[in-house]
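#random but structural
TW: two for the price of one
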Amino acid sequence: MHQERSAAGQPSPAVPSPAYTLIVARWLWTVLVALSLQLWAQQEQYRQPQEEDETYKQREYAFNPLQAEQEFRVGEFYYRKGSWKAAVGRYEEAVKWNPRFAEAWWKLALAYEKLAGEQAQAEASRKYLEAARQALEKFLELNPKGKQASEALRRLERLKSEHR
């Protein structure tokens, strides 16, 4: 076997055949197109509005205390993290799965109050405070003698006096 040598005596680099070059070019083109399509699909996903809230509204709720407890625990995570809107969403889910879940109503009211405190617009703040008032009333209906009942009454009176 004889290797070609350059003028300096070194072996010359192998030059790929035109057929091999064409195969590699087609493969690279296919990869480039696939990646472009994937990027385009991801951009479309971000342009779509969030559907999580719509999914919750369309769901039918049968009494399910285990699902309610799971939603409540996720709500607790978000509450401790300070993500009031996410906590509200999970607490609302919990009371839909179990409308008699007093502690979820209590935490829902607290999260709504926190969310109202963050709102710069008065209208949004009033909306959240009204939701907090309704959650407190439901909590007191379900748990009138519970350990948070006196605090719930105090908060409810404060909310009612602020909105007169």
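TW: number two ↓
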Amino acid sequence: MAPLLSGISDRGSVVRPLHASFYDFLTDHTRSGVYFIGGPSMHRLLAFASLHTLCNDLKFNICGLESSYFTNAEVVDLQERVNTNISCNLSYSCQNWAHHLQRTGFDTTLVALVKDIVGCEKLLFWLEALSLLNGLGYATDALSSVVTWLQVGEPCWCLMSSNVNSTLGPGWI
């Protein structure tokens, strides 16, 4: 598989297709048959796995920083701490859970997991992890897409945006 995929020799690496045509092949059911990996069911599985990872692995001060008063640039060994404390699985989940959620149908199991993240301090832990991963810019779009997704099946959960705004301050979503 090495000619088709990168990241297969290192257990901690994300596996990616080397050429767009291979991705196109895998996501076209008529061409890939049993190897098909596209559609809402795939996104549902990835959303579930990502949310489950966030629920279990996010924690306060995940990299054990001595002070919250230092910027990321001021922490000399930050990248080493990130590599040690934020697994590839958690990194992927932090950066992609909302993308997968947005591409799946409304699902009460997923709603419960989303509420476990955005309804408590895990939201702040997620933002901290994103900051450490240099992905904080993703947060606004992610939260906006989650609000939109929730409103499809649970219109009363539009209160989530006011909950998030009260936690983070106005203007986030």
